[in-house]
Design goal:
The complex is a heterodimer of chains A (280) and B (269). Chain A is an alpha/beta fold and 280 residues long. Chain A has a domain at 84-153. In chain A, 25% of the residues lie in helices and 26% in strands. Chain A has helices spanning 42-49, 91-96, 111-123, 139-151, 169-186, 220-223, 226-233; strands spanning 2-13, 16-27, 31-35, 57-62, 65-66, 74-77, 157-160, 189-193, 206-211, 214-218, 238-242, 245-250, 253-254. In chain A, the strands form three sheets. A six-stranded mixed sheet of chain A has the order 6-7-8-3-9-10, with helices on both faces. In chain A, strands 2-1-4-5 form a four-stranded antiparallel sheet, covered by helices on one side. In chain B, 54% of the residues are buried. By secondary structure, chain B is mainly α. Chain B has one domain (5-193): ABC transporter involved in vitamin B12 uptake, BtuC. Chain B starts with a helix and ends with a helix. Classes of the chains: A alpha/beta (280), B mainly alpha (269).
């Protein structure tokens, strides 16, 4: 059974066509990186899989059933919001608030609920840091807790929306490694959206590249090529491979050169990929 | 002091209202909607004065207006709740309308003062029973919706994906807040609802990071502030609302002091 199946799917958001006639299949134990410029529809695609956005055409099936809201088999990690920074609750309580959260009643957990919280915190290695208030954790530490929340209820498909966003390269590597090991250990499918390809290289099974309403799904070597990306960007794109890294260039200009991060030394040298992010 | 009926009533009303305020306020602070709560109490002033004008108990006017406004705000959701200008305008207009209604009432000054600043010592036994019933409704509603409400407050996108309707809980919660606000205004008045609803909850969230502990502490602090405020008012003959706001601010200040600074604060005169 496939984790995700798109049959001729079109997605429209506020009158704008985000995806147009896309068909694809992602199998049950696959780690797929979702890439593409801003506004290419990475988040929209995830919302459609979650059943929050009905397709304007075609059909979406998730783990064998039509996409529907409230599917307990999907774990979802939304982009980190700044509002979460003001929450004074401990990490443990932040994760615990998710358990059975869709049911009416009071949010006090029994033995089984507390064990579930401890289990997911152990999975992401956040048992210790979960004692501290959320507001005092770093971005990387918060990401671990968000990942723990996504794992509540033993999902078989994980949708991770930009987990690397605004993380230092060092933490980016840690997050990718963690997700990869969870994916292998739990035998689940993972959709991992990112602006940047290089931190994901080596962990990905396939890459799903979005752009101009279209999608290309396949191994990195086949999708991250000049002709394919030129079609998705709608302009001439060159792909340069250098020392195991991949740079996506448009007319000699790195499409995702981060402003300050990777200019501070060779250890941080990174190729970035996708569109500039400053007009999010 | 407890040999007086009016003191017994004051303590009973304060107990009910502070527990409701502490519990509801905890979620209000957690959701970052404190300004919305403040605005609701001002809308309540319009309702209360309108009720006075048509010779109905102000409490009912307040309940009807705040709950209606709370439901509207819940439906408008983020679009309105985040806009300080819109809320600020509603706030000013509400007070203005209230002023107009009072203009037509003969007992102008006393009514205005007790609505704006509260007069817990004037609460009669009948009002205590009404407050108890309204309080039971508020706390009961909160008990039923608190789990999905907490989920929607902490992680709205995930909650939505899991089938929690953000709008539904926003409406239900703001209606509960509105009810609590109307009750709270009986003790400290519409202008000072912040003191009892937000102060203890914000302090509690600074002092403990656990959800259950924070909720209890919030109600406990509100209770402590209300009781102490009335007691101090009895012995000093200063207004109880003053004492409650002073205690609320004092406890909040204590809570936000950095840990190293607490020792020094304790020896300060």
């Amino acid at each position: 059974m496939n984790a995700i199946e798109f049959r001729d799917v079109s997605l429209t958001l506020g009158g704008r066509v985000v995806l147009s006639g896309v068909s694809l299949e992602i199998s049950a134990r696959e780690f797929v990186g979702v890439l593409g410029p801003n506004g290419a529809g990475k988040t929209t695609l995830m919302r459609a899989v979650l059943g929050l956005l009905p397709s304007s055409r075609g059909s979406i099936r998730v783990l064998g059933n039509p996409a529907a809201r409230g599917n307990p088999a999907i774990g979802y990690m939304p982009q980190l919001r700044s509002a979460a920074g003001a929450i004074r609750l401990s990490g443990w309580d932040f994760v615990a608030g998710v358990v059975n959260g869709h049911l009416l009643g009071m949010p006090f957990l029994g033995k089984a609920g507390r064990a579930e919280v401890d289990r997911v915190l152990d999975l992401v290695g956040a048992g210790e840091l979960a004692r501290r208030p959320l507001a005092e954790l770093s971005g990387g530490e918060k990401q671990r807790l968000l990942l723990a929340q996504a794992l509540i209820g033993r999902p078989r498909l994980l949708l991770l929306d930009e987990p690397l966003h605004s993380l230092d390269p060092h933490y980016q590597g840690e997050v990718v490694e963690l997700v990869k090991s969870l994916q292998t250990e739990l035998g689940i499918a993972v959709l991992f959206s990112s602006h940047e390809l290089n931190p994901l290289l080596g962990s990905l099974d396939r890459v799903l590249y979005l752009g101009q309403g279209q999608a290309a799904l396949g191994p990195v070597g086949k999708v991250i090529t000049g002709p394919v990306l030129s079609r998705l960007y709608g302009s001439k794109i060159d792909v340069i491979r250098l020392k195991g890294r991949i740079f996506v260039m448009s007319g000699g200009h790195d499409m995702e050169r981060d402003m300050h991060r990777h200019e501070d030394g060779p250890a941080h040298a990174q190729g970035y990929e996708g569109a500039p992010r400053d007009h999010a | 002091m407890l040999e007086y009926d009016f003191m017994q009533n004051a303590f009973a009303a304060a107990t009910i209202v502070s527990i409701v305020s502490g519990l509801v306020g905890y979620f209000l602070v957690l959701r970052g909607q404190t300004f919305a709560g403040h605005a609701l109490s001002h809308v309540g002033f319009t309702g209360a004065t309108a009720a006075v004008l048509i010779s109905v108990a102000p409490l009912w006017g307040m309940v009807v207006m705040t709950v209606a406004a709370g439901i509207c705000m819940g439906f408008l959701g983020e679009r309105l709740a985040q806009r300080d200008v819109a809320i600020g305008m509603v706030l000013a207009l509400s007070l203005g309308l209230g002023l107009l209604f009072l203009h037509f009432v003969t007992s102008y000054a006393t009514q205005a003062t007790s609505l704006l600043f509260g007069n817990v010592l004037a609460v009669d036994i009948r009002t205590v029973w009404i407050l108890l019933a309204l309080g039971a409704v508020s706390v009961g509603a909160l008990a039923v919706i608190s789990r999905p409400l907490l989920f929607a407050s902490l992680q709205p996108e995930l909650a939505e994906a899991k089938g929690v309707s953000l709008r539904l809980y926003s409406v239900l919660f703001l209606a509960t807040v509105a009810l609590a606000t109307a009750e709270c205004a009986q003790i400290v008045g519409v202008l000072l609802v912040f003191a009892l609803m937000v102060g203890p909850a914000a302090a509690a969230q600074r002092l403990t990071t656990g959800f259950g502990k924070g909720l209890l502490l919030s109600a406990g602090l509100a209770l402590l502030e209300a009781w102490s405020g009335i007691t101090l008012a009895f012995y000093t003959d200063w207004p109880s609302s003053f004492w409650i706001t002073a205690l609320s601010a004092g406890i909040y200040l204590f809570a936000i002091l950095p840990r190293g600074g607490r020792g020094r604060a304790a020896v300060r005169p």
